[in-house]
Amino acid sequence: MINIGVLALQGAVREHVLALEAHDVNIIIVKKVDQLDQLDGLVFPGGESTTMRRLINKYGFYQPLKDFAAKGKPIFGTCAGAILMAKELVGQVEPHIAVMDMKVERNAFGRQRESFEATLSVKGIGDDVQGVFIRAPIIQEVGEGVEVLAEFNGEIVAAKEGPFLACSYHPELTDDNRMHQYFVNMVRNCIVPA
Ligand code: GLN
Predict the structure, then answer these.
(1) What is the mean pLDDT of the chain?
(2) How much distance in Å is there from the Cα of 55 to the middle of ligand 1?
């Protein structure tokens, strides 16, 4: 069975664990750096990206996460998790783990629309995906190697670059597990048989 970790420093960890439980995978709640070695794929949950980054530094996760990504191991980030993955952040000099060639703007929907739901058409999944947006970022720009998977009002809200998957919304907060299934398939396809 493949091992999928959920980075459990802060944020909606439990919801991702529940969403992954619907699939035939071993779930590892990652609190220590040495757990990364066991993983075939990793989820960065939603939450608060600056807090998450502070804890990443505090618990020595920064370089190990960069190394995990450099090995080409799949990562799935939702909302704050997507912010961690962006190589460029609007209004911020330094990005975080910086694995995807995309420019992300935090809290991009403004006060009036801080939290809302919308039906999305997500490539490879369906045109009836319920997107839960909570102080969500948008993906302003993507590089050439990045595939746009979903847009909302002309803004990119889901994207994939090789083994990396990011979305602005929270699939873990609905009972629709298709996005997690999609990631699990990415992880399975990525494993080179011994
Ligand atoms: N606004 C949060 C941030 O900037 C993300 C919100 C979320 O993950 N729901 O990190």
Answers:
(1) 95
(2) 15
